[in-house]
Specification:
Distance between the termini: 33 Å
Oligomer: single chain
Strand content: under 5%
């Protein structure tokens, strides 16, 4: 399993450095993909990453690869979403306080109820805000690391 994961990362890394784009454009796409990879908008995050990469003139392929790379955290998704929700809830509440315990058996939501305005405001908005606290610092680090690694790779391999 670990071998497969390392091969997958290596394959996608080679795709990134082989792009005919500037290191800053590739790194910008990676940063955008990382930010959107952490958001709770699972069905839209790849399209949003490609759209934002196009808008900011970054590599669309790099953005799509970075969003896909985030899917490796799938086993940790429930814990990550709970952390993001808690951080966002804390930030948005006045005075600041952590959210109450969630008991899903008291609030069973059917699929059509997820699209109600209250659910968006009470759950998705705090989760989105909390995701920014995690993703933006990681995206900044990834941007500068990607620029340096792409430049070093291109210098080494001509």
């Amino acid at each position: 399993m670990i071998r497969w994961l390392l091969d997958w990362i290596r394959e996608h890394w080679h795709r990134l450095v082989a792009l005919h784009d500037t290191p800053h454009s590739i790194a910008g796409g990676v940063a955008i993909g990382i930010v959107l990879g952490f958001t709770p908008f699972y069905t839209l995050k790849t399209l949003l990453a490609i759209g934002l990469a196009w808008l900011f003139r970054c590599s669309k392929v790099a953005a799509a690869v970075a969003v896909t790379l985030h899917d490796l955290t799938l086993p940790l998704t429930p814990m990550l979403l709970r952390l993001e929700y808690g951080m966002g809830y804390w930030f948005l509440s006045n005075p600041h306080h952590w959210p109450p315990k969630i008991h899903l058996h008291h609030h069973p939501l059917r699929w059509h109820e997820w699209f109600h305005r209250e659910v968006f405001i009470d759950v998705l908005w705090p989760t989105f805000v909390g995701s920014l606290f995690i993703s933006i610092p990681l995206a900044v680090v990834a941007f500068f690391a990607t620029v340096r690694l792409v430049e070093a790779h291109r210098k080494k391999h001509g």
